[in-house]
Design goal:
The protein is α/β, with parallel strands linked by helices. The protein contains 34 helices and 24 strands.
């Protein structure tokens, strides 16, 4: 060991000594619990909890709690944790990664740390790599926890939210990393507090921590769904607007102010649009999204010029930087403007799917107050664990000395020669009765080997990590005499290979053949198990002696993996608990790893010495080169993970702000002060935008008042303010306008509150804010996704892509927050609301009536339509699919777009807005003003729903036989 390694390992040495002292302390008090009855032992849990309530800490309880859990495991499972397992459990409790060799009993090790931390009542999450192991461990180790009075749950995919919530309410919850992460994201898409399933992130124990936190961390978790904006409407309005004519002073179909880059639709234009679409009132609340399509289509026609503001290249609309003239790859106009331009140009409208929620595994697991893990191979990634997750790696000594013999790699010139040598080696050892575990890096190579083994008549099993329960059973028997098992590098995780076979699996198989089911006939099954298990144990012990004499388990690798950890995991299958064992890797110059790194030099040596194709070479130099190649690839993968994390760090800060705000809303907090601040900020932004140029007499206050009237019912006139300012506009300044209009807007909101009642307004505030946040956040994620796709091209301009992403991401987030304020204010003033007071029940007193909340009803606010076809994208290393695999869920809850009675194809916008909402950002000009609803304008009865659904005259999809406009498209929804 080098001096540097000794320095780096000094801290670990101190930790190991500390863990040994804890194990000794646990052993010293173990006798205190051996003589307790089962009831007395289980009663210790309540005593520990009382001591915690009195001020003791978990560290104070550690020796006693570990001793109790140790005794419980011995009674329930018949397995008493060794001292090294106690050390591993303590390492987990202190927030470390316990590196324990394969077969050292990591699953049992976790029981003590999980029990101790579950005493706090805050919940413990045990994360595994697949659903089978989550179920198995919850049922297996859960018996110990339940014996001690704790509750155990398991979260599985495609189960109702109620089941997940019940599982998280338990003291201990088992599940996979993907399911925990998706539940977190779904919680932050929830429409009500009742839909939340998780209750915090207290303590997590991650099994196979290197696989989950390192290998899978290159791909984030993503929930995506169909984009709300409909390509159909963009195309429809592009055609409508092409027939409209601009004008001035009320003439024409719309007016354009090129200096302020705004448009206003005239009454004549509105009438033409209504006639073309076959609707009665464009400004009815259910048609609010259509106004946004109309405004964007006119802006695309008049304000965005081809080959000036954008170009069309290979069927794609690309933005031109107005200052440099460069193409801004990876940028899109937001709020539907880019799609409107695409419709105008007749190119493909790119918004089929959008991200609804996303998080990297790194940022999810950093939510936990305390994180720990266990694996057989973590030291090679210790630096990354410490830097990213702030956890250390502690190597736990083995219970018995390791006696496995790791032989040098052998290298052949061709893959064919390598496989022939592998088959010969397997055949020879199979004949001697030595079990062989063959590791491959791909399913394809497994099939090749299986075919060659069949030709030689060698019985074998092929595993490819798709059916975890069946694989665990097969791998458990991979140590039987003469067994040959061909497995991909991830097969059989979590299952020990016992020499001579696993007696419990064999006994269970015999009972299954008898027709006994442990669930249907629990008592009969348990009685039968007691009868057959001793016989199988005796047979397995006798067979284990024969296998040990033959050399123990032989692990044969057919190719080096990119990661040394995976190779070490394969090797670690042999030599568990002091068993004899042997390992060797067979390589060829045609292997991918060899082709990528320095295979030419080795081939030149073989050619020079005229070494035949079927003669291998053994060289420490080649082995060193292979390790060097693996280290290079590990470095490249680490850079990928680092890069993913860099980009997600930008989103993570934004995510925390948005999710914290959502949680405030869901928890029913009083948002009145926040809403008042939003009103002040929005009004000030309007005024500052209209008065940024020139003097008072030059300001277009008529335009400003026109815009403000769409935001809220303005109660003062320009003339009144002129009189207050001394009789002329010249006497007014921006600060005076801001102060008076803020006062007026707040007075209007006071009247709104009197109209709806204090509780009614508070409830409306929460409902509106939640939906505006959700929709704006989804739009923001879409824009950030698109930005990231092309941001790397900035490197050609000598600009750091990550810095550019951070800068532009910050600007986009600020724009989103401004838009949230503006739209929230617009909806609060304008949306049509009905307030239903609680009706008194017979015999109820007034006090009981006051406890009942008022009910707020507004179109689009009272129901959470189900989003169809949500897609869950997540990394996987277990063979189901490649990283980034996508699973589709048929339906999931979604907050609807505001201002419409059903899911709408777009965001709400107001017509005719001609003053900017805030000073424009000169860097991009990518933000059209966020426009509030004008639902109160021009109400009209019998209005059809404008959505992505059927036309008004089409048969209603409910099957009633009536036309859609007479059924669910009618104002009363067909009732």
């Amino acid at each position: 060991m080098s001096i540097l390694e000794k320095v780096l390992n000094a801290g670990e040495g101190r930790m190991v000594r500390r863990l040994k002292a804890i194990a000794a302390a646990v052993s010293s008090i173990e006798d205190d619990y051996v003589n307790l009855t089962d009831e007395e032992l289980a009663g210790m849990t309540e005593q520990f909890r009382e001591r915690l309530d009195e001020g003791e800490t978990l560290d104070d309880l550690l020796p006693e709690a570990f001793a109790v859990a140790r005794e419980a495991a011995a009674r329930v499972l018949g397995q008493r944790p060794y001292d090294v397992q106690v050390m591993g459990g303590a390492a987990l409790h202190f927030g470390n990664i316990a590196e324990m060799k394969t077969g050292e009993g990591k699953t049992l090790t976790s029981v003590m740390a999980v029990y101790l931390n579950a005493l706090s009542g805050k919940g413990v999450h045990v994360i595994t790599v697949n659903d089978y192991l989550a179920q198995r461990d919850a049922a297996w180790m859960g018996r110990v926890h339940e014996f001690l009075g704790l509750t155990v749950g398991v979260v599985l995919p495609n189960r109702p939210a109620a089941e997940h919530k019940a599982a998280y309410e338990c003291d201990i919850t088992y599940g996979t990393n993907n399911e925990f992460g998706f539940d977190y994201l779904r919680d932050n898409m929830a429409w009500s507090k009742d839909e939340l399933v998780q209750r915090g992130h207290n303590f997590a124990v991650v099994d196979e921590v290197d696989s989950i936190l390192i290998d899978e961390a290159r791909t984030p978790l993503i929930i995506s769904g169909p984009a709300e904006h409909s390509a159909r409407w963009y195309g429809e309005f592009a055609g409508v607007v092409a027939r409209l004519q601009p004008g001035t002073d009320g003439e024409g179909d719309y007016e354009v102010d090129h200096s302020k880059r705004t448009i206003a639709v005239t009454e004549r234009g509105v009438a033409k649009v209504e006639d073309r679409l076959g609707i009665d009132n464009l400004y009815e609340s259910v048609n609010t999204p259509l106004v946004g399509y109309l405004n964007n289509a006119i802006k695309a026609k008049e304000l965005y010029k081809r080959d000036k503001d954008y170009i069309v290249s290979d069927g794609e609309v690309l933005i031109v930087d107005e200052f440099t003239g460069r193409i801004l790859h990876g940028r899109r106009y937001n709020e539907g403007m880019h799609q409107a331009i695409e419709a105008k140009e007749g190119v493909e409208i790119k918004q089929e799917n959008q991200t609804l929620a996303t998080i990297t595994l790194q940022n999810y697991f950093r939510l936990y107050e305390k994180l720990s893990g266990m694996t057989g191979t973590a030291q090679t990634e210790a630096s990354e664990f410490n830097k990213v997750y702030k956890v250390g790696v502690v190597t736990i000594p083995t219970h018995r000395p390791m006696v496995r013999e790791d032989r040098p790699d052998v290298i052949y010139k061709t893959e064919k020669a390598k496989f022939n040598a592998v088959i010969e080696d397997i055949a020879e050892r199979h004949q001697l009765g030595q079990p062989v575990l063959v590791g491959t890096v791909s399913v394809e190579n497994s099939e090749i080997l299986s075919q060659l083994l069949r030709r030689r008549g060698i019985p074998h099993n092929v595993l490819n990590a798709k059916f975890h329960a069946r694989e665990a059973e097969i791998v458990a028997q991979a140590g039987r005499k003469g067994a040959v098992t061909v497995a991909t590098n991830m097969a059989g995780r979590g299952t020990d290979i016992l020499l001579g076979g696993n007696a419990e699996f064999l006994a269970a198989n015999e009972l299954r053949q008898r027709g006994l089911d442990p669930l249907e006939n629990e008592e009969e099954y348990a009685k039968a198990m007691e009868e057959v298990l001793p016989n199988w144990k005796q047979a397995c012990d006798a067979e284990a002696d024969e296998v040990s004499a033959a050399g123990g388990l032989y692990v044969l690798g057919t190719e080096r993996h990119e990661s040394r950890r995976i190779d070490n995991q394969l090797r670690g299958r042999a030599g568990r608990q002091g068993d004899p064992g042997e390992s060797r890797f067979y390589l060829s110059l045609q292997d991918e790893l060899m082709r990528r790194f320095r295979a030419g030099a080795v081939e030149a040596v073989m050619e020079r010495f005229n070494i035949p194709e079927d003669v291998p070479i053994e060289s420490k130099m080649v082995t060193r080169q292979i390790k060097s190649a693996q280290a290079q690839i590990e470095g490249q993968n680490a850079e990928i993970r680092k890069n993913v994390l860099k980009y997600d760090e930008v989103l993570n800060k934004q995510r925390q702000v948005v999710y914290a705000e959502r949680l405030r809303v869901l928890n029913g907090e009083d948002l009145s002060d926040q809403v008042r601040n939003m009103i002040d900020d929005t009004v000030e932004a309007y005024v500052r935008g209209a008065t940024s140029d020139g003097y008072g007499e030059d300001w277009d206050l008529e335009q400003l008042w026109s815009s403000l009237k769409q935001l809220y019912p303005v109660g003062v006139t320009i003339e009144e303010l002129e009189e207050e300012a001394g009789g002329s506009r010249a006497g007014m300044d921006a600060d005076f306008l801001v102060a008076r209009l803020k006062e007026d807007a707040n007075a209007a909101y006071d009247r709104r509150e009197e109209e709806l009642g204090t509780e009614g307004v508070r409830q409306l505030e929460r409902m509106v804010l939640l939906q505006v946040i959700d929709r704006k956040w989804r739009e923001h994620l879409y824009e950030m996704d698109y930005l990231q796709e092309g941001i790397n091209l900035r490197a050609y301009a000598q600009r750091d892509p990550v810095v550019e992403y951070q800068r532009e991401g910050f600007d986009m987030f600020a724009t989103m927050m401004d838009g949230i304020k503006e739209e929230t204010v617009g909806f609060l003033y304008n949306i049509d609301v009905q307030v239903t007071e609680p009706e008194p029940e017979a015999g109820a007193d007034e006090v009981a009536l006051l406890d009942k909340p008022v009910e707020i009803r507004a179109k689009g606010l009272n129901q959470a339509p189900r989003r169809q076809g949500l897609q869950y994208s997540a990394p996987t290393i277990d063979g189901e699919s490649s990283p980034g695999a996508v699973a589709v869920e048929q339906a999931e809850q979604q907050a609807p777009a505001l201002g419409v009675g059903r899911p709408a194809p777009g965001a709400p916008a107001a017509p005719g807005r001609t003053a900017p909402s805030a000073p424009q950002r000169p860097a991009s000009g990518l933000r059209g003003p966020a426009v509030p609803s004008a639902a109160a304008r021009r109400p009209a009865p019998n209005q059809a729903e404008a959505s992505n659904g059927p036309s008004r005259n089409a048969p209603c999809p409910c099957g009633s036989g009536r036309k859609y406009k007479r059924c669910h498209g009618a104002p009363n929804g067909g009732n």
